[in-house]
Amino acid sequence: MPPPFSPLFYLPYFPPLLLLFYALLLLRQHRRLPGEPPVLFSPLPFLGSALSFGKDPLAFLRAASAALGASVFTVVLAGERTTFFSDPADWPPLLRTSPAVLRFDTISADTGAAFGLLPATKERLFYGEGGRETHAQFAKFLSQPEHLSEMTARAASHLSSSLAELANSPPFPLVAILSPIVYAASMHALLEPGHPLCARYDLFAAYDKSFPLLVAGAPLAFFPAAKKALDAMASLLLASPAGPASACSALMRARYELFVDRLSIPLPQNAYSQVPIVWAAAANTVPACIWALLYTLSHPSAHDAVAAECRASPAEPDYDAMPVLHSVIMETLRVESSSITVRRVAAGGHVTKAGVQLRGGDRVALFPPLKHFDPELFEEPEEWRWDRFLGEGEKLAKEVMPFGGGVSYCPGRHFALREIKAFLCAVFKAVDVELVGSAGGVRRDEARVGLGVNQVRPGDDVLVKVKAL
Ligand code: HEM
C-alpha cells in the first residue's frame, strides 16, 4: 500500500468521488421544484440534450413533449435550463409578458460578445437609454413609409443592375453567384451606395460561418478567421463611418449620432456596435432570397405565376400589392425559417398563464416550426405550396412566425419582405431562368437550424441557365 502522502494512496477514492460529483451535477440540473414543469432527463451534465436538439429540433421537441406527457417542459441545453412551451396557444400571453419579468435585453447583451463588444459597450448599448433609443430608432427608420421606400429603392436598384448584367452569362451556380448580390443589395440599402463593405460578402460569410458557436457563448478568440473578418468589417465602418456627412440610410446616421454623441461609445467600439445591424440586415435575407428562388424554379406553376406577376408590374412596383410573391415568400419562410424566441426569467416565482412556475435565471423558449409544421393548421405541411396564402389562405399567413414576436419582433420585417420581392422582381424581369438539373442537390444546413432562416449546406449548389428576355 502506498504511504498516505503519496497521491496513489488516494487513488481508490477518486472513482466514488467522481461518481458523487456527477450525481450531484445531474441532481442540480434535473431538480424540479413544486409547480415547475417536468425536466427532460439527460445523462450529460452541462451539455444536456444540446446534441440531440441540434440534430433535429422539431423532432426532438415533439418527442420530449410526448415522453413527458406535457406541453411545457424544461430541457438542459449547453448549460442553460430552457423551458419550452410547445403549445402555440401559450405563446401570445408569453410574448406579451412584461420585459421586466421575461427579459430580452440580457439575451441581446449576451449576443453582443459575439460581435466583439466589450462589457462597457454592452452596458451602454443594450440597457437603459441605449436600449430604449436603439429600439425606438428601429421602429421609426425601419417602418415609416418614406424610409422604407428609400431603402427598398436602393436595394432594388442594385439588384436590377446586377441581375441585368447576368442576362447573357453562361450557366452559373445559383447560390454562389446570387448570395453576394443579395448581400450587396442589403448593404447598399443600409450604408451609402458604394461603401467598401458592399463588395465584401467574403467578410460577412467568414464571420457568419462561426456565428452559431459564437452566439452559443464560445469566445471570439477561439475563431481566428471569424475574428479577423469581424475586425475587417469594423475597420471598414471606421474608415467610412455612417456619420452626418455620409449618404447612408437615415437609420445608420441616427445610430452613429446616438453611439458617438449621446452614448459616447469610444472608438473603435462604436464601429463594432454597427456590425450587429449590418449582420442582421443580411443574415436572413440572403438565404430567404435563395430559397424563394430555388422553390419557385423547381415548381413550374410557381415559376409561371411569379414570372407573370413580376413582368406585369411597373418599373417601381407596389410591393404591397403583389399577392403571388407574398404567398411564395411566406410559404418559403414557413418551411425554411426556424428562429427560436428566447427570454430570460428575471426572478423566480412567476406563474405563467399556462399555470407553470418559472425559475429565476432559466430561459423560456418558443419554437415557431412547431406551428409551421402543424398539420392541423397547414395541410400537408412538409410540402412547399406556392399558392397556400392566396385567396382564402391569405388569413393563414398570420400563423407564420419567421420574425419572432413580442419585444424582439424583427424590426426589419417590412424591409426584408420588400427586399425579397424586389429580388424576385429583378430576376424575373431581367431574365428567363431555368434550373440545369435538380434543386434537390441544395440541402439545408442542419447545423444552423434554430438560428433564423435556414442556410444552404456549405458547398451545395445548382446550375442555372439564363436568357435575356
Ligand atoms: C427574412 C429576413 C429576416 C428574418 C426572417 C428575420 C428574423 C428575425 C428574428 C426572428 C428576430 C428576433 C430574434 C430574437 O428574438 O432573438 C430578428 C431580430 C432583428 N432583426 Fe430581423 N429578420 C430578417 C431581416 C432583417 C432585416 C433586413 C433587418 C434590418 C435591416 C433586420 C433587423 C433585425 C434587428 C435589428 C433585430 C434585433 C431586434 C431587437 O434587438 O429587438 N432583420 N429578426
Automatic annotation (TrEMBL):
- Quote the subcellular location field of this record: Endoplasmic reticulum membrane
Q: Which UniProt keywords apply?
A: Endoplasmic reticulum, Heme, Iron, Lipid metabolism, Membrane, Metal-binding, Oxidoreductase, Transmembrane, Transmembrane helix
Gene3D superfamilies given for it? Answer: Cytochrome P450
Q: Which cofactor does it need?
A: heme
Q: What pathway is it annotated to?
A: Lipid metabolism; bile acid biosynthesis
Please give the start and end residues of each transmembrane region.
Answer: 6-27, 59-79
Q: What is its main location?
A: endoplasmic reticulum
The answer to whether UniProt assigns keyword Cytoplasm to this entry is no
- This protein's source sits in the domain of life called Eukaryota
Keyword Coiled coil attached: no
Q: Which family does it belong to?
A: Belongs to the cytochrome P450 family.
Q: Which PANTHER family match?
A: CYTOCHROME P450 (PTHR24304:SF4), CYTOCHROME P450 FAMILY 7 (PTHR24304)
What is the protein name stated in its UniProt record?
Cytochrome P450
Recorded source organism is Tetraparma gracilis
